[in-house]
Amino acid sequence: MKMKNIAFGVLSAYLVSGCATIIGDPSQSMTINSTPDDARVLIKDEKGVEIFKGNTPTTVTLQKSDGSYWGGKDYTVVISKDGFKEQSIPVKSSPNGWYIAGNLVFGGLIGWFIVDPLNGDMYTLSPQAVSASLPDQTAHNNAANDGNIRVVLLKDVPDEMRDRLVKLN
Fold first, then answer.
1. 3-state class of 24 per DSSP?
2. 3-state secondary structure of 48
3. Cβ-based neighbours of 25, under 8 Å, separated by 6 or more
4. Model confidence over 115-149: pLDDT tens digits?
């Protein structure tokens, strides 16, 4: 009788679980850094809802699912600072290895199609960390610092540098 109860318990656990649900978390921490430091961070989700506002360096906790069936969350991280070009980094959710391979061993079809897709623990956000290098707003593509001359298009020369141009014959 005891062996029958143990077998029933194991079978029940197998049928009502998904591997990503057992191993995964509904949220994920993300570290956000920038060069230079103290840049503004704005995070919006796939619906355009503002999720976070702060400054670098920071760590935020993001939900991996919107709570709906197959409802992985996506985000846009915008990093900006006065005098520097803004950077926009997409953060996408995708199924993790525990969902894909773990359900072969533990969760089976119920894990794949019911349990894990309903709770959202099956997702991983990528990239897992953001490190943005903000280029100077006055930066141009003339990176010559060895005495050479680089040719650039007039449209690529910042307005504040145009008065220093010298016409060559």
1. coil
2. coil
3. 64, 121
4. 565 666 777 888 999 999 898 876 555 555 555 66
pTM of the model: 0.62
Residues 143, 106: Cα–Cα separation, whole Å? 56
Tokens read off for 1: 């009788």
In the structure encoding, which two tokens stand for residue 22, read together? 């057992």
pLDDT band at 165 (very low <50, low <70, confident <90, very high): confident
The helix (H) or strand (E) run that includes residue 2 is helix 2-15
Q: What tokens appear for 26 in the block?
A: 């509904």
Give the C-alpha separation, 8 to 113, whole Å: 22
If you search the block for the tokens 């919107």, which residue do you land on?
A: 66
Per-residue pLDDT at 122 = 72
What are the extents of the domains in the chain?
Answer: 2-162
Distance CA 23, CA 41 (A): 30
Q: Side chain identity at 87, as an amino acid letter?
A: Q
Q: Are 71 and 24 a contacting pair, CB within 8 Å?
A: no
Are 56 and 37 a contacting pair, CB within 8 Å? yes
